[in-house]
């Protein structure tokens, strides 16, 4: 089974892109090869580019505050575990405080690092980080993996508050949905959405070999089940297939 996600608005789209980049960054940093650490630096620059939106930090803070206020209304509810509530609110508080203390945009502290910025200016050029173009960078790549990793972790620390905030918010969003088994008739499925409720994320889990083509807005969601042909082009799998659908508000 493979899980696919489809965001309904630009804010969630940006958050998912950043989550994808932070996940990739964590995998690359843990490895030892110089080429992996090269792509870890490239990923740091991608995160800085995606997170450069002026209002992203304030949007994340507002969302964390909204969730905290909403959860506080459950205090005293006999059906809600106070210990579990304290744990979730504590995670939100830590994420909020860390993000609030972050100076400027994500990665702004790295922009004063001339060595990193010299790499950033050339990394988009094909072959632009060769040893004769950036000898200092080539020398860094020859260091022991532990030394390179320590440098990477220091740079990543300036981005960690945003990563933690994203993890908390996307976790809360995903937990808000209830999975349901549905059937795509002749490979196609549509569902009307109730008025007065705004969904932000659609999650589809289905068998390997099928690829969902997803659409969604405030009134309706749709899923077409596709199967790649021998050339890799997607064709409609015109058969009845069930899959798991989750709508998160």
TrEMBL record:
Keywords: Cell cycle, Cell division, Cytoplasm, Septation. The keyword Cell division applies. It is found in: Cytoplasm. Its main location: cytoplasm. Pfam families: ZapD. One of its GO terms (biological process) is cell division. It comes from the Bacteria. Cell division factor that enhances FtsZ-ring assembly. Directly interacts with FtsZ and promotes bundling of FtsZ protofilaments, with a reduction in FtsZ GTPase activity. Belongs to the ZapD family. HAMAP family: ZapD (MF_01092). Interacts with FtsZ. This is Cell division protein ZapD. The gene is zapD.
């Amino acid at each position: 089974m493979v899980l696919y996600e489809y965001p309904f608005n630009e804010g969630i789209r940006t958050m998912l892109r950043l989550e994808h980049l932070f996940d990739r960054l964590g995998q690359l940093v843990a490895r030892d090869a110089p080429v992996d650490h090269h792509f870890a630096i490239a990923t740091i620059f991608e995160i800085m580019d995606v997170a450069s939106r002026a209002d992203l930090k304030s949007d994340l803070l507002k969302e964390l505050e909204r969730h905290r206020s909403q959860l506080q209304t459950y205090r005293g509810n006999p059906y809600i575990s106070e210990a579990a509530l304290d744990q979730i609110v504590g995670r939100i508080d830590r994420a909020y405080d860390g993000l609030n203390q972050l100076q400027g945009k994500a990665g702004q502290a790295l922009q004063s690092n001339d060595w990193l910025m010299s790499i950033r200016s050339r990394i988009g050029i094909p072959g632009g980080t060769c040893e004769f173009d950036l000898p200092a960078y080539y020398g860094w790549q020859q260091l022991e993996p532990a030394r390179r990793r320590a440098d990477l972790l220091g740079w990543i620390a300036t981005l960690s508050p945003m990563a933690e905030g994203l993890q908390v918010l996307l976790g809360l969003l995903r937990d808000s949905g209830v999975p349901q088994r549905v059937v795509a008739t002749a490979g196609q499925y549509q569902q009307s959405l109730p008025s007065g409720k705004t969904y932000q994320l659609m999650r589809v889990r289905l068998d390997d070999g099928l690829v969902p083509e997803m659409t969604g807005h405030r009134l309706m969601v749709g899923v077409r089940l596709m199967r790649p042909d021998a050339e890799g082009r997607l064709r409609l799998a015109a058969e009845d297939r069930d899959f798991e659908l989750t709508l998160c508000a």
